[in-house]
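Service request form, structural biology core

Requester: graduate student, group of Dr. S.
Request type: structure prediction, single chain
Budget code: on file
Notes: please return the result as structure tokens.

Sequence provided:
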Amino acid sequence: MKSLWVVAILLVFGATAWAQVENAAAPGDAAAAAQPAVEPVAVASGNRLPHYPLPFHRGNDASASYQGFYLSLGLFVPVVGLFFLWIRTTQWVDDDSGRLKLRTEFWNSVVFAGGMAGFALIFMLPTVLLGLPALLLAAGTPIGLYVAERNSRVPESGKVLTPRHLTTVANRLLARFGIAIGGGETPVFAGGPPIKFIGKSTVGGESDADRSRQVENSRGYAAAKELIYDSILRRATDVHMEPAETEVAIRIRVDGVMHGGEAFDRDTGQAVVNVFKVLSAMDITERRKPQDGSFRAITSGREIDFRVATQGTRFGEKMSLRILDQGAVVPDLGKLGMPKRLHDRLTRLIHEPHGMVLCCGPTGAGKSTTLYAALTSMDRYQRNVITIEDPIEYKIEGVNQIEINSKAGQTFAGSLRSILRQDPDVVMVGEIRDAETATIGCQAANTGHMVFSTVHANDTITALFRLLELGVEPFMVANSLTALIGQRLVRRLCPDCKEAYKPNPDLVHKAGLPADKVEFFYRPPKTPQEECPTCGGLGYHGRIGVYELLVMTDRIRDLVREKAPAATLKAEARKDGMLSMREEGLRLVARGVTAIDELLRVVK
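Core staff response, request fulfilled:
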């Protein structure tokens, strides 16, 4: 790109020099130009034309004694300013497309060609009124197309030229002159990516400005900002820093799958780890014992929480960061991927006056998101809704949200016992981890409250027996439970580069589908298309839920009281219409939403 800029600069200033060449006038012409105006003649006499009534001159200045200066400085200076603005924009496109893997060579060529064509037009067209719109159209169109493509690849917080982004940029510029707009604190980004870290206080406060300023001059601060900002743009949910013998490897989790990143050398990696430890109020001298903490960051007007955990390993201290975007919008219950039959049935159940709805699955299966979606579907102003979470993942208006603190002795069970004296209508417990929490939750469901919670189990039947194993009496489980939701998250195929293929009959048989009725499945492209604007060569973009719903009918309640085996309970649930997660997932495969390999990877 630098060589292209040099060529562009030479061409523009060469055109300028050419336009400013003063044509030396002949002596006769100069004398004619210096003569006073001749009185106009009304009609031609003989073969002679009448004299022009005004003095003849060339160039911009009618009073000048020279000819040939055809360039208007008043119009040329803004054009030069636009030229350097275009150069800065091409540099941004080059850096941004490289970081996001968005067809860097293609966009560099298109933006450069469009700009050069625009500047050629502004010098070729007779007036600036024609040339300036031509310049803006030729140079601005490729840049606008690139912005549209890159905005479709990044989260809301990373989009540019949006009203929120323009407002943030304006506030940031005004803040440099001491002008604060909106009454709030405008974050100032000290170089590098537009992200500001906010450290955690050790004395009980939410943030510590001194701790934030403490790391700004440290060696790894710029690298830490680059790592976090890049992870946010790539929609990562977790960042792992793993020490090796000669480097610190970086891996990020996108859509539930780990991907490699650019590694740090040992010294830089350790400096970055220390930055996060200082922000999280950890002891930077302790590198063997596990520690945990948290800090926040602000980027593009959005607040993001980070949960940090460290652990000593063979080659040093490993660190993992969980990214929780507080600005994310809770999805609607109908947009989670549930089939209409299951969605309608679940909607009726969660609006009952009392009972317990449990969501089960492994870590990262989207259980909390499902419960949040259920809460937002309720009238939170007519009902008193209280949640107990660790941590608070989404902020919901009209809901009293409590974050537990195990170090201070605040647990799920203790908090649940306390909030039952706050006259709640709906209670959400982040996770049932022990017998005490499970027992209190069941008691709350039996005393007129609607309780939502999660439990770690592979499916709904296993979750039912998990409560029994925790020590809850079978009659209490049978009386309190309303429904159990089992779920997994599978990756969505990229709609722009997925390809159809004839599936292997053995694979179709393994999936439990009739081979004679299956014509095509879809999969990611065999050759990754790194220039794909949607997925960037991954073949997948985003995730969708796969669910199973077990409704506690009277017959199933009787079987639970009798401590019937799991096979009997499962057979009875299937009689009531329950489909397994694999069966529900095959519906997505048949529609081309996900690939059969992805479904079999996630669901057994």
